[in-house]
Sequence to fold (79 residues):
Amino acid sequence: MKETIDKINQAIDRCEHQELAYQVGKIAREKGMSHLADKTGLSRETLYRTLSRKGNPCLKTVLVVMNELGLNLSCDQSS
Fold:
């Protein structure tokens, strides 16, 4: 999972929203989409669609999913 988290951080740094969605989706699939759907109130179909390389989830969806997966998004000032 460390490698996937590194890829999530790279996607954030590079403003690659589709890669971010895909990498979060990888962790979601490992943990189980049905469980995640129950916890977030989002359908499995929505999760699979939005957390793909072609997905374009809204920020709220990303934050809800990341929170449920035990991940957080933070902010730093660029140098």
Observations:
- The radius of gyration is 12 Å.
- The CA atoms of residues 45 and 77 lie 36 Å apart.
- The mean pLDDT is 93.
- Helices lie at 2-13, 17-31, 33-40, 44-50, 59-68.
